[in-house]
Each structure stands twice: as C-alpha cells, then as structure tokens.
Design brief:
The protein has about 475 residues and is α+β, with helices and mostly antiparallel strands. It contains 19 helices and 13 strands. Strand 7 and strand 8 form a beta hairpin. The structure holds protoporphyrin IX containing FE. Protoporphyrin IX containing FE binds next to helix 13 and helix 19.
C-alpha cells in the first residue's frame, strides 16, 4: 500500500516536533475564521497541502487532521480505547442528553447492547417492507412537471420511515415541525467551536432562545410517543418497546422517562437527518449524470420490471447500491468524525498530546486520488463501477468510512443502506428529478452535510 504511515501509541523519546499545518490567523481563534467558511473544503485544502497528518489551531483546540486510511483505522478501531468523542458530540448532549451517540464508557456499552436487537437482520427484513411502502406512498403523490424541494421531501420520507419502523408511529404529520426545529438546532451548533460558546449558550440571546424552543418542540413529540406507549403497554417489538421494557441486570429497575427520551430522540434524529441528506445528494448526482441515471434505470427495469422491491432484491441491485454509495462517498452526511486523545498518541513519529482533537474527514479521504482514481476517472466522477467487488478489494478499508468504525460505528448502517437503495429503487422506477435551472447548489456543513439552499427539482415521469 502507498505511503502507509506508522501509527502507534506514543514513544515520547522518538517524538518529532508538530506536524506541518496552516498558521493561525488570529490569537484565540487559530484558523477558525477560514475553517468556518467551508469546513470540508478547508480540511481538503489542508490535507492536499500538508499531507496525511497536519496540525492546526482550531479556536482553543489543538487539532490534527488525519487523512490516511490506515491511521484512521488505528484511531477508530485498533486503538479506540485511547479516544473519546470530541467536543462537538460532547456539546450535542445539550440536545441529546445521554443517548447512544453521545454517551461514553459503560453506559454506552450497556445502551448499545440494549438497542442492538432493533437492528438485527430479521428486523431489517420487516423494516424493508415499511421503507418501500412509505416510498411508494410519497411517489404516488408526485405530479409531473411540479417543482419540489427534494431536501424537504426526503426529510419527510425518512422521518416517516424511522417513525414507522422504530416507533410504530406516524410522525409524518410532525415532519415540518421536526424539520424546522432541526434547522434551528443545527444553526446553533454552527457556533459551537467558537471560544467561550459554553458561556454564550447560557445567555438569553435570540439564537439561544430559538434553540430552547426547538428543543422543547422535539421533547413534546418524543414525550408524546412515550406517553402513548405507556398508556398502551405491551411489546410491539420495536425500539420504543425495547427501551420501555428494559431492566437493569442488577437491580431490575427500568429506564426513567428522561433516559428513554434521550435514546428515542437520538434515534429519531440520527435515523432521519443523515439518510435525508444522502438521498437528496443522490437525486442531485443522478440529475447531473444522465449516463449513470440511464444505467440505474436499466437495472431497475431488468430486475424489478415494474414491481415493488423487497429486502431480497438488495443483493440483486448492484448498480442502485453503487449509485447510493457514490452519494455517500462524494457527499458523506457525517463529513468529519472527531476524537479526543485520552493519552499521548503517536502517528508517524509525531506525538499527539493528550486532550488534542483528531479530525478524520470522509469528505477528504473519499476524494483522495490515491484510492479513487480509476483509469481516466478522477475522484469527483460518479461511477457505480467503483463498487464492483474487485475494485473494492484494491482499496484500503478505511478509504471509505461514511459510517465511522470500531465500537462507535453507526448502529444504523445496514438500516441506512437498505433504506437508501429501496427508496431509490421504488421512486426511480417512476420518476426522474431535474435540478431547477439557476438553483444554487452548495453544501452546508454543520454536523451533517446539508444542501445550503435546499434542492429545488422538477419531477419528470418516466412512464409518460
Ligand atoms: C446515510 C446514513 C447515515 C450515516 C452516514 C451515518 C453516520 C454515522 C456515523 C459516522 C456515526 C459515528 C460517529 C462517530 O463515530 O463519532 C454514526 C453513529 C450513529 N448512528 Fe448513524 N448514520 C446514518 C444513518 C443512521 C440511521 C438510519 C440510524 C438509526 C436508525 C443511525 C443511528 C446512529 C446512532 C444511534 C449512532 C451512535 C452509535 C454509537 O455510538 O454506538 N444512523 N452514524
């Protein structure tokens, strides 16, 4: 493998000085003013200029940008016990409390074990039918020639799916409220890297009030789901039942409403925001690559011939899977994954001091020409053939890591693949989406990678 760095826990005697990296532009802020303008673009330029390991000052944080797949594997998997989640996810506790995404240590291990059965293969088979039913219902309401905001549509659809599968509930009617609350919340997270933001968040600023209001709206919805279920107890086998029926191994106590709320809200948010973005970018990429779109349609017509897809079809739709994979590659919803070192750590002879932040960006690594140039095709080119098994075997595993890795790997990974491919297969049998001329397309990287101006598209019927 090319340029593989040596990665290990630190041996301070051999440590070199800091790795190269961009100079701070302001005291206290470091490179933050540049970084905040376009975080993924900035990380990409840092990696291109300074290589697989770069140092920069990000506000009060000492940050290291790690861009080699092997070093990423060692941080996320091999040496994962030396790391905790970084500041952004720690701060996400103001919204998510101690849910799976934000908790650490024993609590995380216990909760993960508890919710894992909700993602087993036999449960996914049932979810697949719900995913297709929701997609078919949405697709049945589309009208040819009509202009829609695809991001809003995909948010509604993925919320309907997560509500039905994990909560046996219809949250579609709350979709616009949840969507608006998420936009408010994410805009506050935009300021989280700024020095002293913890204190700013305690002031009665308009942005803080909007955040509190949005959080209260989400709480109302989630506590409503919990109250409904407590009023009609019983095991429906979904995630909410698992949470409500769980008992501590030692004292057999159940979870409090607050604990159930944290876990339920975490799954409601993590389970729709990411897939909504991934699907929106998929429709965008298809609209820009008619040759790829034609290959997708040919596969759907050949394999499905007009019928609805099912779980068993997932393995028969390699091109559809490749299209969704290309969207996850070029527009990874989790555009950066952060960790904080608990002890000194060394990469390639450099010592990374304890408490430093390590930033690993799928946006950067998924565009690295070392792994993603194929023949004449540059990394930016969309090509589902990159996902042929022989091509995959040529690349280091962590050249593609949209779902992270190790014990903190996304619990919904298989759910998300099934959802992405089945939604695409259901809707693209009937519809083509075309970008509205002049609509500006730009990314907005907050915690997820959203389309900054939404995604205005016109619906075209494929079947006339
Ligand atoms: C395309 C869709 C998705 C992407 C790209 C994605 C990405 C990720 C990533 C990168 C992480 C790890 C973060 C870290 O290590 O710091 C993660 C964790 C998580 N994801 Fe996803 N996710 C997706 C869909 C889902 C879905 C559908 C669900 C639930 C239904 C979900 C629930 C979670 C949860 C609960 C965690 C925390 C796991 C833990 O720490 O044990 N995600 N996701």
């Amino acid at each position: 493998m090319e340029g593989s760095p040596t990665v290990s826990r630190s041996s301070p005697r051999a440590a070199l000085a800091r790795p190269p990296g961009p100079r701070s532009v302001r005291p206290f802020l470091g490179v933050l003013p540049h970084f905040r303008k376009d975080p993924p673009g900035y990380l990409l330029s840092v990696a291109r200029e300074y290589g697989d390991l770069a140092y920069m000052r990000l506000g009060p944080q000492h940050a290291y940008v790690v861009s080699h797949p092997d070093a990423i594997r060692d941080i996320l998997v091999t040496n994962q016990s030396n790391f905790t989640k970084s500041r952004i996810l720690e701060r996400a506790k103001v919204l998510l409390g101690e849910g799976l995404l934000t908790s650490e240590g024993d609590l995380h291990t216990r909760q993960r074990r508890l919710v894992q059965p909700a993602f087993h293969r036999d449960r996914l088979i049932g979810y697949a039918a719900d995913m297709v039913a929701c997609a078919e219902q949405a697709s049945g309401q589309y009208q040819p020639g009509v202009e829609i905001d695809m991001h809003r549509e995909m948010t509604r659809l993925t919320l309907a799916i997560v509500g039905r599968t994990l909560f046996s509930a219809d949250v579609a009617s709350d979709a616009d409220q949840i969507g608006a609350a998420m936009t408010q919340i994410l805009s506050l997270f935009d300021t989280l890297l700024v020095p002293f933001s913890e204190w700013l968040q305690k002031l009665p600023l308009p942005s803080v009030r909007r955040f509190e209001k949005a959080r209260a709206q989400l709480d109302r919805i989630v506590y409503g789901l919990i109250a409904d279920r407590r009023a009609h107890p019983g095991d429906t086998g979904d995630l909410l039942s698992m949470l409500l029926l769980s008992q501590d191994e030692d004292d057999h106590s159940g979870m409090t409403d607050k604990q159930v709320r944290d876990e339920a809200l975490t799954h409601l948010i993590a389970g729709h925001e990411t897939t909504a973005n991934a699907l929106t970018w998929t429709w965008y990429l298809l609209s820009q690559n008619p040759d790829v779109e034609a290959r997708l349609h040919a596969e759907l017509d050949r394999v499905l011939g007009g019928r609805l897809p099912s779980f068993d079809d997932l393995s028969r739709l390699p091109c559809t899977t490749g299209v969704f994979a290309e969207a996850l590659r070029l527009f990874p919803p989790a555009w950066a994954i952060g960790r904080r070192a608990s002890e000194d750590y060394s990469i390639d002879g450099y010592t990374i001091p304890a408490r430093s932040i390590l930033l690993m960006s799928p946006w950067v690594v998924h565009r690295d020409p070392r792994w993603w140039t194929q023949g004449d095709a540059q990394p930016e080119r969309v090509d589902p053939a990159r996902w042929d098994p022989e091509a995959v075997a040529q690349r280091p595993k962590f050249a593609f890591f949209p779902f992270g890795g190790g014990t903190r790997v996304c619990i919904g990974e298989r759910f998300a693949w099934a959802e992405g491919v089945l939604v695409l297969a259901t809707v693209a049998q009937h519809w083509k989406m075309r970008l509205v001329p002049g609509h500006p397309v730009a990314t907005q990287a907050v915690i997820t990678l959203r389309p900054r101006h939404g995604m205005k598209m016109t619906l075209q019927s494929r079947t006339g």
